[in-house]
UniProtKB/TrEMBL annotation, chain A:
GO terms for cellular component: plasma membrane. It comes from the Bacteria. Residues 8-19 have a biased composition (Pro residues). Its main location: membrane. Belongs to the binding-protein-dependent transport system permease family. CysTW subfamily. GO terms for biological process: transmembrane transport. The lineage of its organism: Bacteria, Bacillati, Actinomycetota, Actinomycetes, Kitasatosporales. The keyword Membrane applies. It is a multi-pass membrane protein. InterPro entries: MetI-like, MetI-like_sf. Residues 85-299 form the ABC transmembrane type-1 domain. This is Polyamine ABC transporter permease. Keywords: Cell membrane, Membrane, Transmembrane, Transmembrane helix, Transport.
From TrEMBL, chain B:
The chain crosses the membrane at residues 7-32, 70-90, 102-124, 130-151, 177-201, 231-255. GO terms for cellular component: plasma membrane. CDD domains: TM_PBP2. Belongs to the binding-protein-dependent transport system permease family. CysTW subfamily. PANTHER family: PUTRESCINE TRANSPORT SYSTEM PERMEASE PROTEIN POTI. InterPro entries: Bact_Polyamine_Transport (IPR051789), MetI-like (IPR000515), MetI-like_sf (IPR035906). Residues 64-254 form the ABC transmembrane type-1 domain. This is Polyamine ABC transporter integral membrane protein. Signal peptide: none annotated. Its main location: membrane. It is found in: Cell membrane. PROSITE patterns: ABC_TM1 (PS50928). It is a multi-pass membrane protein.
Length: 309, 265
């Protein structure tokens, strides 16, 4: 995802420079845009309008729905499902932080230390993408199974005591606990963090590191003063690419969690496809959209001004 | 210990890589399992049954064929529409460019479940029958933005003087486009198309909302998580992984060779 805009162009390279472009030539960009933009308006913008109208309707499936400007649906939905909203933001935020923590060393390794292994490592990061993510998420059910080697080992080193105390696990179980859901979320969105990080790290001139070393900066200082600031664009787009999809995800919570770990995506899915309470479902979906858009805007502002200095 | 301290980045990076690859290894290992019941979550016995009969489960290969078909058409649609938008955005100046840029950006900045739900309200209001066509429409829609971004990145790095040179040599607009512009933009278009194919083939959330009773491969896997997961799912997962490694590795080798040849020249 590029957040940056295309730079302004020098005199339109499409047309002959000397004389004024003809009307036909001036219409070319519009003809190029028309089909795709029309597609997006009809199947992306229009659906949002329909959803807005659905969210203020009342009625029932049998008698049909009618627009009654019933805004109370929003309030009811929020007051009933705020735990799921909070949980979604908490899980998605934790997963994003973990992705950054885990992804940064790997992106750094590939960009600066891999040498001739670089391409192989990149293939290993991209290739799992192509195995259906549902199959891979189901594999976590096997890995985190009760009494399996992973869970036994975590219990033996006292890790599960700590996570149980934090309320992330229950006793000697990992499956069907918040830890399992966050593990799955972190796993599923990790490549979306690594690739932008790698792209921005790869652009850094290694001579800057040498220069920092020549100026007696210790490796930690070099990282804090040179590498990290220069990799901020990757950090920003990586965290966005992780947080946004994670906040609406319901697959991990469904496959690896329990009824106590339901996220807002699970609620929207069941309201739409099982309960068939369309107004509530539409309102929930709009609240989620608003929360995400506001969070993202605030984050981009902050990251774009203060933290980038 | 000082060795470990000096190589802490390498160690941490490799641990993350292990975390990324672990599920793929589990999928591979369990494709050779012979489970006792309906669920393939516990290891029991080595067997190659599932590999010899990958289509042995009802509806599995049908759903796979359907997903491939949808992914193929969605890729064609999104690539054609997306490449046209990308060319217009990079090569021409016109009003409403900012608006169009945000319109392209928004689908990527929205949780999938919101898009899925809103599309469903549209289809329900129009009384459209959910199935192949609604899935195809939805996939083309959300792949479009990703193609635009991929193609834009490539076209932006193209030197417009190459096209001017072609015109100076009396090439017509069509000839310039086919002989100069398109070949240079091809890697970007290919990357966009590959991304679209992978996104569409693997999409679950949008398909879940807009498929009706039609079962794509991810829908089949989702259903099997409740009813019992056949070993064949692991076989297909492993095969997909292998094919992906081959394609990506092949692409790397080709681009390396090109680079070397360019150096020799």
């Amino acid at each position: 995802m590029t957040v940056t805009q295309a730079p302004p162009l020098s005199p339109a390279p499409g047309g002959p420079p000397a004389h004024k472009p003809s009307v036909r030539r001036r219409l070319v960009p519009y003809w190029l845009l028309l089909p795709g933009i029309l597609w997006l308006i009809v199947f992306f913008v229009l659906p949002l309008v329909y959803q807005a109208s659905t969210s203020v309707q009342t009625g029932s499936l049998e008698e049909g729905f009618e627009v009654t400007w019933h805004f109370a649906t929003y309030w009811d939905a929020l007051s009933e499902y705020y735990p799921q909203f909070l949980r979604s933001l908490l899980y998605a935020g934790t997963a994003t932080a973990l992705c950054l923590l885990l992804g940064y060393p790997l992106a750094y390794l590939i960009a600066f230390k891999a040498g001739r292994w670089r391409n192989l490592l990149l293939v290993l990061v991209i290739a799992p993408f192509f195995t259906s993510f549902l199959i891979r998420t189901l594999a976590w059910k096997t890995i985190l199974a009760d009494g399996g080697p992973v869970v036994e080992a975590l219990g033996a080193v006292g890790f599960l005591d700590v996570t149980s105390w934090l309320g992330l696990t229950e006793g000697s179980r990992v499956l069907a606990t918040p830890l399992a859901v966050v593990t799955g979320l972190t796993y599923n969105f990790l490549p979306f963090m690594i690739l932008p990080l790698y792209t921005s790290l790869e652009r850094i001139d290694p001579r800057l590191h040498e220069a920092a070393g020549d100026l007696y900066a210790r490796p930690a200082t070099t990282f804090r003063k040179v590498t990290l600031p220069l990799s901020m664009p990757g950090v920003v787009s990586g965290t966005l690419l992780t947080f946004i999809p994670a906040s609406g995800d319901y697959v991990n919570a469904q496959l690896l969690g329990s009824t106590d770990t339901r996220m807002i995506g699970n609620v929207i899915q069941s309201q739409f496809l099982r309960v068939l309470d369309y107004p509530t479902a539409a309102a929930l979906s709009f609240i989620l959209m608003a929360i995400v858009l506001i969070t993202v805007t605030v984050y981009i502002r902050r990251a774009g001004t203060e933290d980038l200095v | 210990m000082s060795w470990a301290r000096r190589n802490i980045v390498v160690i941490a990076g490799l641990l993350t890589l292990a975390y990324l690859i672990l599920p793929n290894i589990v999928v591979m290992v369990f494709s050779f399992n012979k489970p006792a019941g309906r669920f393939n979550y516990a290891w029991r016995e080595f067997s190659t049954d599932a590999w010899r009969d990958p289509c042995g489960v009802a509806d599995l290969c049908g759903s796979l064929a359907l997903s491939l078909q949808i992914a193929l058409w969605a890729t064609v649609g999104a690539t054609v529409l997306g490449a046209m938008i990308a060319f217009a955005l990079v090569r021409y100046r016109f009003r409403a460019r900012g608006t169009i840029n945000s319109l392209i950006f928004l689908p990527m900045a929205m949780p999938e479940v919101v898009m899925a739900a809103s599309l469903l309200t549209l289809f329900l209001n129009l009384g459209a029958e959910l199935g192949f066509w609604t899935i195809l429409i939805a996939h083309t829609m959300f792949c479009l933005s990703f193609v635009v971004v991929a193609v834009k990145a490539r076209v932006m790095s193209m030197d417009p003087r190459l096209e001017e040179a072609a015109r100076d040599l009396y090439a017509g607009p069509v000839q310039t486009f086919l002989r100069v512009t398109l070949p240079i933009a091809a890697p970007g278009i290919a990357a966009g198309a590959m991304l679209a194919f992978a996104l569409s083939f693997d999409d679950f959330i949008i398909t879940n909302f807009n498929s009706g009773n039609t079962v794509t491969f991810p829908m089949f896997v989702w259903g099997s998580a409740q009813r019992g997961t056949p070993v064949q799912i692991n076989v297909i997962g492993t095969a997909m992984f292998a094919v992906a490694v081959l394609i990506v590795a092949g692409g790397q080798i080709i681009s390396n060779r090109r680079k070397k040849r360019a150096l020799i020249r």
